[in-house]
Amino acid sequence: MTTKFFVLKQDLFKYILPHGIPRNNLVILAGEGGSGKSVIITHIVKDALSSGEPVVYVTVDDDPQTVLMQLESFGVDTNKVCSDKQLIFVDGFSYILKTTKPHFCVEEEVQVEEPDKFLSILTRVVEKHGLSENGLLVIDSLNDLFIQMDPTRLILFIKSLRAIFAKSRSILTIATLHTSTESFKEYLASIEHLVDGILETSNIHPQLAQAIPIFVRQITVRKMKGVDSKQGYVLYGIDHEGLKPVVLQLTK
Question: Quick one: which of 20, 76, 135, 164 has the most CB atoms within 10 Å?
Answer without folding.
Answer: 135
